[in-house]
Design a protein that fits this description.
mainly beta, six-stranded antiparallel β-sheet
């Protein structure tokens, strides 16, 4: 018998970054590169472009997401950008992939160590109301 035949099939293989039901979502977003690092937790904001008859706005898309890896991304201009790998659910991964296509900006907001509180839905339109 070998160690691999004794392994618990419910346990992820050594080094696997996710467990059942989780995915790794890759995003490029605005955020402070010195605070968004592997092991930290972030909230994700999505800012939409205004459309005819509909204002743009910003939504709190995800809360308390674990950062698996992060590196500074090349910045054209504007705020610093980060290429980050986030531990999310499948639904969240699909949303983030779509947001990378339609959003004007994704922004990662670092959370204080140990802060696991949830705010719930937060959205602001062009009128900031």
């Amino acid at each position: 018998m070998t160690a691999s035949t004794l392994a618990d099939p419910a346990e992820p293989p050594a080094g696997a970054p996710v467990t059942r039901g989780q995915r790794v979502a890759e995003v490029v977003a605005a955020g402070p590169p010195d605070s968004v690092v592997a092991g930290s937790r972030v909230d994700v904001l999505v800012t939409r472009e205004p459309r005819p008859g509909a204002p743009g706005g910003t939504d709190l898309a995800l809360e308390d997401v674990e950062v698996l890896a992060a590196t500074p991304a090349p910045a054209d201009s504007g705020p610093p950008r980060i290429a980050a790998s986030l531990r999310v659910t499948l639904r969240q991964a699909v949303y983030l992939a779509a947001a990378q296509s339609f959003a004007r900006e994704l922004r990662l907001l670092p959370r204080a160590h140990g802060d696991r509180r949830r705010t719930g839905p937060v959205s602001y339109g062009a009128d900031l109301g």
